[in-house]
Amino acid sequence: MEFPFDVDALLPERITVLDQHLRPPARRPGTTTPARVDLQQQIMTIVDELGKASAKAQHLPAPITSASRMQSNRHVMYILKDTSARPAGKGAIVGFLKVGYKKLFVLDDREAHNEVEPLCILDFYIHESLQRHGHGRELFQHMLQKERVEPHQLAIDRPSQKLLKFLNKHYNLETTVPQVNNFVIFEGFFAHQHRPPATSLRATRHSRAAALDPMPAAPARKLPPKRAEGEIKPYSSSDREFLKVAVEPPWPLNRAPRRATPPAHPPPRSSSLGNSPERGPLRPFVPEQELLRSLRLCPPHPTARLLLATDPGGSPAQRRRTSSLPRSDDSRY
Ligand SMILES: CC(=O)SCCNC(=O)CCNC(=O)[C@H](O)C(C)(C)COP(=O)(O)OP(=O)(O)OC[C@H]1O[C@@H](n2cnc3c(N)ncnc32)[C@H](O)[C@@H]1OP(=O)(O)O
């Protein structure tokens, strides 16, 4: 992918890492240095063009990667340049990989909900003319080392078939843990994960049920902490969510037909997973209330039940609230 400016001078390293500041890397000694603002503009152009090319390759209605989205999120972009060819002496870009930490509610193999904050693969693109030459693997490998994560610890935001094959081939990732959101996680995701100390912000911020849940928490964040967070909404974290706005018809046409009774169990494996990795049109919008209702119908964890039964200090009101279904004014979500 070529640009009308000198990519080779702009990005001295084979792989450049960009964060939300989109700072131009330090240039090689002896290279003439244009104004800093021009360099940043060039970086922004590269990010925008890569985002557009990736969206086109994935048949998305709009790019999910752009300079402005980079600036407003704590994502990290790994950009690979072509060091062999220097068409017109200006260099070229091979592709990019975008990652970021996200709060997710994921199901484990017992179909219990877990709040985690894994590193997510958000966008990945290698130029069409250079795919299947090992460039994707080079980028991915570099990212794994820099972020110090193992492939099975990652969550993937709506992987394409090509990416699923890529992950299978290079990292033996095959067996997925079925989810009801757009993220795909693989077997081993819940193994050996970092468990924060009981006094950590994460533990105290959680709901009582989450604090009692013995499932391990997400891998430790390597990125700086985000701004103060508000209420956590299940399934609200996909980086591709905003694309729904582009494809969703206006209200009331966007309302899914209401069921008489909410589903007692999450969708079966094939349905959940069959939907997630597919590209093309996004899945119909699931009304949040319906989703919450099905969440609230999940049976309490056995540990929680035991504690509630044996907790003599809890007031009757407290016991009433925790032993029955959450009330409509329950503001946890
Ligand atoms: C969360 C997300 O970002 S989902 C979106 C992922 N991006 C895309 O689908 C955009 C189009 N595809 C691409 O840009 C690239 O193919 C990537 C990024 C998926 C992989 O990068 P590449 O440089 O092609 O990967 P690399 O050469 O290291 O590995 C090749 C392997 O990837 C998989 N793969 C790559 N292209 C294809 C393809 N067209 N068909 C099937 N499998 C493919 C295969 O396993 C392949 O191994 P094989 O050639 O022996 O079958």
From TrEMBL:
The modification N6-acetyllysine is found at K56, K146. It is found in: Cytoplasm; Membrane, Clathrin-coated pit; Cell junction, Focal adhesion; Cell projection, Axon. Autoacetylation strongly increases tubulin acetylation. Residues 1-190 form the N-acetyltransferase domain. Residues 197-238, 252-287, 303-333 are annotated as: Disordered. Acetyl-CoA binds at residues 124-137, 160-169. Pfam families: Acetyltransf_16 (PF05301). Residues 226-238 have a biased composition (Basic and acidic residues). The keyword Cell membrane does not apply. It comes from the Eukaryota. Its EC number is 2.3.1.108. It catalyses: L-lysyl-[alpha-tubulin] + acetyl-CoA = N(6)-acetyl-L-lysyl-[alpha-tubulin] + CoA + H(+). One of its GO terms (biological process) is regulation of microtubule cytoskeleton organization. Residues 209-221 have a biased composition (Low complexity). Keywords: Acetylation, Acyltransferase, Cell junction, Cell projection, Coated pit, Cytoplasm, Cytoskeleton, Membrane, Transferase. The record marks Q58 as: Crucial for catalytic activity. SUPFAM superfamilies: Acyl-CoA N-acyltransferases (Nat). One of its GO terms (cellular component) is focal adhesion. GO terms for molecular function: tubulin N-acetyltransferase activity. HAMAP family: mec17. Belongs to the acetyltransferase ATAT1 family. Specifically acetylates 'Lys-40' in alpha-tubulin on the lumenal side of microtubules. Promotes microtubule destabilization and accelerates microtubule dynamics; this activity may be independent of acetylation activity. Acetylates alpha-tubulin with a slow enzymatic rate, due to a catalytic site that is not optimized for acetyl transfer. Enters the microtubule through each end and diffuses quickly throughout the lumen of microtubules. Component of the BBSome complex. Interacts with AP2 alpha-adaptins, including AP2A2, but not with AP1 gamma-adaptin (AP1G1/AP1G2); this interaction is required for efficient alpha-tubulin acetylation, hence clathrin-coated pits are sites of microtubule acetylation. This is Alpha-tubulin N-acetyltransferase 1. It comes from Odocoileus virginianus (White-tailed deer). The lineage of its organism: Eukaryota, Metazoa, Chordata, Craniata, Vertebrata. The gene is ATAT1.
